[in-house]
Amino acid sequence: MPWKEVSVMEERLRFVARLLDGEGMSSVCREFGISRKTGHKI
């Protein structure tokens, strides 16, 4: 089964959507593998 190719914009939209759903910044950043500083920039 091939890996799913996802664009950067799709990943950013998923990231923001999870934050808008009320999840914490630290936990979402940890799952996406980015720093909190980068998360705030997005």
Keywords:
42 residues; mainly alpha; 64% helix; globular
Describe this entry's structure for a reader:
The protein has 42 residues and is mainly α. The protein is built from 3 helices and no strands.
Fold topology:
Elements: H1 8-20, H2 25-32, H3 36-41
- pLDDT under 50 segments (min length 5)? none
**Rounded radius of gyration (Å):** 11 Å
Q: What does the average pLDDT come to?
A: 92
So how many helices? 3
Please outline what is shown here.
This protein is mainly α and 42 residues long.
